[in-house]
Amino acid sequence: MKKKIFFCFLILSAFSLCYADDKKFIKEKDTIKKEFLKEKDRNDILKVFNSTPEPEGGVLNNIAKSVIFDIKGNPFLVLPIVNTSKDLGIDWGFMPVLMLKGKNDSISSVIAPSITKNADLGYTYAYRHYFFPTEKSLIVARGYLSEHVQREVFFHYYNPEILGSNIRLNAELRDWHNPKSSFYGYGIDSKKSNGANYTYYLKGGEFSLSLPLFKNVYFDYTPSYYQNKAENGIFTNKKFSDSFPVEYSMYNSYKSFFTNRFSILFDNTDHPFIPKIGTYFIFSGAFSKKGLLSDYDYSIYTLELKDYYNYKLLDKSITAVRFLLQWQTGDDIPFYNMPQLGESTGLREAGDGRFVDRAKMVLNIEQRFTIVKQSVMKFLTELEVSPFIDIGTVAPSLSKISTGDLKYGPGLALRIVLRPQIVGTAEFAFGSEGMNTIVKINYPF
Questions:
Q1: What is the pLDDT of residue 164?
Q2: pTM to 2 decimals?
């Protein structure tokens, strides 16, 4: 417990040191002090961040001229896909991308279908459509269909400025059959060799409303209802039902989860999807009551802190830091809904759901270097190189989290940022679980 407290103290101290350096620099430069302290100058700072000092014609434009075509004024390109999965190996294929322009030549929507081939899934056909009604709002429609098992229908809506106010609205609907899941047992000492592939079924949705309380402070209410189950995966040599017969017998039929999540959050970041400066903090409690559209009595508490530090206000390097602490109380619930640590949950070197238990702690640090920043076909485009390290662990309870059980995953990310809405990223992570490659849209945090 003392180690855990000391670890949290180090994290908070790191944030304090960042701000201490900030203040020291402010004293040295009165003009920068004015930019920091006056909120009315915040937009001027962001204009500097989002400006384009280099003329059209550099490295990115030379590449763009080779791979991007013009279709009635709308950029079009075809991207190769080579993606690895800890569970299913390599996916390869291609993805045509069409960016449709709206008012003022800004991107109004992006259409990105794809075809990929995997040795176990066969061909997978996907359709993605991203809508950008404003610079900070987003609508996503997505569908997947594979020859074997995998399928998805997904819809997401986010708007942080409903009717011109500071009220935030978020809604999501999903029907998903995911054959890429594996379960390895409980705890940080679960062995990779014990992993058994299963197909994860999810259907349901959630709705979130964030109401402003004070400046940059919000109260959020999120009710959600999902049904989930786990069945044998597509690998026949090591069945989930044989490796974990107890979990299979308990969770191979749909279980219902209705939760009410209440949150207090602070957010003064400059953008909901691709932030460059500011801090985001949230503390939430999600509660489920058996008999009230749910099969279990339990609660999950989450504390998360994210900070984006721009050294001396120079748009060259951004330090992005995220700390998350999560713990569950109440009934034992299915492993797939417990706190997890893996590829999409804080430890990129491991497969999804690699470590599972009733509590987890995660620290992610990225140094996002802007290598090239240019206007490409009238879009502000940045090329980033981001070394990172992921640190995390899981435990049976919050009090049993120990720094002696930490897993480490250093890596490197290559990203193309199309402001104001889009990030394409290829991440290469390493660690005790081996190497993992992740290709996706948007930052990890």
A1: 85
A2: 0.83
